[in-house]
Specification:
- Helices cover 24% and strands 34% of the residues.
- It is an alpha/beta fold.
- It has one domain: Class I glutamine amidotransferase (GATase) domain (Rossmann fold, 3-Layer(aba) Sandwich), CATH 3.40.50.880.
- The longest helix is centred in the N-terminal third of the chain and has 10 residues.
- It is globular and about 45 Å long.
- The model has no long low-confidence stretch (mean pLDDT 94).
Length: 194
């Protein structure tokens, strides 16, 4: 049985834990480097990306996770987790950092502030339609050829289709919150890839 970690420093940890527990996995709330070492894969939840980044440093997890990512460790980041995995945050704070594990450039709050949050059906390749819950979501605006686009969204704002669910090797990222939709298929897709 796979041991899946959920980074449990800030954000929607409980929702990911509940989703993963429904999938016949052992779930570990990761708060220490020792707990990180005990898991086969990790979920980086949504929340506030700069806060999570700060807490990764203070918990002593920034470097151990960075090393694991460089070694091909499987990680699934949703919303803020996607920001932390990206190679470029175009409108981030001066002190904002990211791991560069996904070759994407994005804008924080790319679909609008909290008041502009929305839900939209998302057609995911080889999965079908899932509910996309977008809350201060990052918008992917550029990506390299090595990034597999699994789903896109046209938000109707004249900017066309943008990737909202991507994969590069063992690293997955979603602009939206699949854990808030009570649909385990995207988490299952990640677990099945391990």
């Amino acid at each position: 049985m796979k041991r899946i970690g959920v980074l449990a420093l800030q954000g929607d940890v409980g929702e990911h834990v509940t989703m993963l527990e429904s999938l016949d996995t052992v779930v570990v709330k990761v708060r220490t480097p020792e707990q990180l070492e005990s898991v086969d894969a990790l979920v980086l939840p949504g929340g506030e990306s700069t806060t999570i980044a700060h807490l990764l440093v203070t918990a002593g997890l920034k470097e151990p996770l960075g090393e694991k990512l460089r070694d091909g460790f499987p990680v699934f980041g949703t919303c803020a987790g996607l920001i932390l995995l990206s190679s470029e945050v175009l409108d981030g704070r001066a002190d904002q950092w990211s791991y560069g594990a996904l070759s994407v450039s994005l804008r924080r709050n790319g679909y609008g502030r909290q008041i502009a949050s929305f839900e939209s059906p998302i057609e995911v390749r080889d999965v079908g339609t899932v509910a996309g819950v977008f809350i201060r979501a990052p918008r992917i605006v550029a990506w390299d050829n090595g990034v597999e686009v699994l789903a896109t969204l046209d938000h109707g704002d004249g900017r066309g289709e943008h990737p909202v669910f991507v994969r590069q090797d063992n690293v997955w990222g979603a602009s939206f919150h699949p854990e808030l939709a009570a649909d385990p298929r995207l988490h299952q897709l990640f677990v099945d890839s391990l």
